[in-house]
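From the shared-data thread, chain only:
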Amino acid sequence: CPADLNFALGSDMVYHEYAHFVVEEVTHLPYVVGSESAAMSEGLADYFAATINNDPMWGDVIAPSRQRNLQNTLNYQTDMNGQQHNDGMIFSGALWDLRDAIGQEATDELVFNTLFQDRYHFETFMYGMIIEDDDNNDFSDGTPHLAEIITAFDNHGIGPGIANFNGLPLTPEAWIELLGEEPPEGEEEEMLGAYT
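Structure, as tokens:
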């Protein structure tokens, strides 16, 4: 990136950093380096910047050495390496695949509303999206975008995949058992300067 390029002039960077602020205000994703929650923080910031710009490439103009492509085939099983920006592309790739499948408005709404559930892992975020997708308080009949959500995450090695999906829990207790999770342990990185 040329020294005279100011990051504040790039919408990718501005939207990404603002998304970090919004995500932190809505849900506290512990930014523990190497954790899924830190990767989710980066993936969500990339997703919101990309969806606002209607472009799956992040940083290609303002920060080419840091660019990230949300239209990717990165896989949770083979490509996780503990680096939050790399791992975040796995998560944001699943979100972008869902956006391609059901549209920007529906995906943006599902992603934003799921933030209020305090999910710390890629797979539990997927189940949180399924909860948000329910339109009649009856999981016995599925949800409007159930197959698309599961498939988008499965494309990136997250979740059981549609072939192994055994249905949704039908009781609140069963959902708690499925989604019960604790925030990652470890020292959180200071927020100022931790992003991008």
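Confidence is low (pLDDT under 50) at residues 191-196.
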